[in-house]
Amino acid sequence: MLYQRKISKGDALSAKLGFQLQTTRYVLAGTQMLGVCGGMFLLWYQSVPLPTPAWGVGMLILSFIQSLHMSQALESQRHITAVGPVLRELLVSAAIGGFAWSATVIWMGEYLSDEVLYALVMIMVIITVATVAATAVVREFYLVWLCSSLIPVACWLAWTADARPFNLIFAAVLWGLAILMAVLSYGISRSFTQMVESGLEREAMAKDMAGFSETLRAKNTQLQEARKQLADLAKLDELTGLRNRRGADKAFDMEVSRAQRGGSSIAVIMIDVDHFKAYNDTYGHPAGDDVLKRIAGVLRSVTARAGELAIRMGGEEFLLLLPGANQADALVAGERIRTRIMSLEIEHSASPSGSIVTVSQGVVACIPSMTTEFKQLLEAADKALYSSKEGGRNTVTLSPFRP
Q1: Given 255, 316, 317, 373, the catalytic residue
Q2: How confident is residue 2, by pLDDT bands cut at 50, 70 and 90?
Q3: Strand partners, 269
Q4: pTM (whole model) above 0.90
């Protein structure tokens, strides 16, 4: 068995009490009322005056009170919240009901004819047998009923065996019937207990599986989010937080295709930090990393429009992708980058071209034809960048590229 959950005795007893209350409040009460009516009919025509109406009314009231008490316990869910007290109340109720019948037989027995006495005993027997299926769910209840109804009458009949011709026979029958019904009640109670535990196990399994499925869905969502985050991180440069080359390749092709379909311009700016190796040699790599981070912040500040990307191509080389920008727009963006980086005033005493950190840029802007590939734009921007370096650095050079 792949799944098994142990059901506590308290849970099983609570479920059995609920069923016992639901059935007993009608079955036992209804059967007793019929028995009372039959007993009143038998006692009504006795030659000896008996308080038959008072007895009948008292028994009916007792039966009604028992049924009402069971209904209240069921409706208030006390069989769930107070299992022990409800069980004790049921046992007391069974004892009172059983003793009421046995007391009736024993008290009125000396005034009744043989036929009426044995008929009254048979009414009690019928009540006991007819209600076993409903009242033996909680076996203790049925055993208390047996011990308080049939057993006292059987003992009384055996004790007064000489008073009536069939007392001993009826006593033996009642004892045998009590033993038989006790055994039968054990089988009924055991079968119902197994059914209750099986139902509770299925219910618990359904709840556990629902909780497990919910947890699994949550874990799956977390896993998907983690995968997405990992995928996003793989596309980012760890040092600067900008897109890396791998993370930008798809954007390159997508923006070129969009410009080709819409007949719009697209611009690329290749950026290189001037004399960066000399900076690292002079100030150390941690200081060089800080320079790259500050430059990345400048590039991020000039790519505010949708589709614009700032990318770290590797080392000290960066690239800006500006969809919709023409040559004039690209040159303005390049000049803005140059002046903002200069305004950082990062000291660079080892630079042959100045005392602060500067950048050189190569710019290309065009309306791509249907055969234009992005690598052509990169090559053109790289050549323009080379021209900026050859021209003294800290400059912006426009490529003459035409698609």
Answers
A1: 316
A2: very low
A3: 320, 363
A4: no
